[in-house]
Design goal:
34% helix, 9 helices, alpha+beta, 10 strands, 3 domains, elongated, 6-stranded mixed β-sheet, 15% strand
Length: 275
């Protein structure tokens, strides 16, 4: 048993799911069908593809505590070629704040509560108790590694592990794009107005704003469908104005859409409706 496999077995005994890494911090597949990324994951194999295995068998999803897998024949060659060991932090309810350089480490000391730290080649891993979504480059030299990613095992570290603070969770919250002046193309109308009172249009715009701001996922698609619905109902009679369109753009931008995305979605909706 080589040193990397021994480390993985020791981690598994402590309920830490582990996996081998090749040079370049790239994981191995552990079934023949997934070798050389044949199953369709990303080229670096850091993201599982739609393989036909009973479960995703590479990238972070390959991390396991099953000794029959870790020390079994599927990974015999992998451990011989392994350059490092990785683990799945989110799988054991942990979050790693990966600090890639000295400036990032200094920022962490100024900003984050003290916790267990592990030295890396260029910086440090700060490890907190609690899982969250994983996002790279939340600021210069700072990655968040927790669920659905792996992190290199570099030792247990030093210091007392503390609970994941809100200051770390807040790092992945995208700030709304500032609402900037935009040029909006509004149909000139010319058709017969079906709206008996201005209240009908106002209610429609308000409902459209609410639909956009209430979106919790698929914001791009929600914005486009909302623009399409508004233009379909109000775009041909001349009642829709530039100020109405800008209200919709502003609602979309508070959800993180850029002015360009808004303009593109509006233009695509106009094209789809033949306007």
């Amino acid at each position: 048993m080589n040193a990397h496999l021994r480390t993985a077995v020791e981690l598994a005994a402590r309920s830490v799911p582990a996996l081998p890494l090749r040079l370049g911090k790239v994981p191995f597949g552990n079934c023949p069908a997934c070798r050389d990324n044949a199953c369709g994951g990303r080229p670096n194999m850091k993201t599982p593809g739609p393989c036909a295995c009973p479960r995703p068998c590479h990238a972070w999803a390959a991390a396991t505590t099953d000794l029959a897998t870790l020390a079994g024949p599927a990974w015999t060659l992998a451990w011989k070629q392994a350059a490092a060991v990785a683990y799945h932090p989110g799988g054991i309810g942990l979050t790693v704040v990966d600090l890639d350089h000295a400036d990032a480490v200094d920022w962490a000391h100024r900003t984050l509560p003290a916790t267990r730290t592990v030295p890396t080649a260029r910086g440090q891993h700060w490890i907190y108790r609690g899982a969250m979504a994983s996002v790279n480059a939340v600021r210069d030299g700072v990655d968040i590694k927790s669920t659905m990613v792996y992190a290199r095992w570099l030792g247990p570290g030093t210091g007392t592990m503390t609970t994941l603070p809100d200051t770390v969770r807040a790092l992945i919250v995208k700030e709304p794009s500032p609402v900037r002046p935009v040029t909006v193309t509004v149909p000139s109308g010319g058709g017969e107005c079906r709206h008996r009172t201005p209240t009908y249009l106002e209610r429609g715009i308000a409902m459209a704003e609410q639909r956009i701001t209430a979106a919790t996922s698929g914001v791009h698609a929600t914005v486009y469908r909302t623009f399409l619905a508004v233009l379909s109902a109000h775009g041909r009679c001349g009642c829709l104005t530039d100020s109405h369109a800008k209200r919709l753009f502003a609602a979309a931008q508070t959800k993180g859409e850029t002015a360009r995305h808004c303009t593109d979605a509006w233009s695509n909706a106009l094209t789809a409706l033949g306007m």
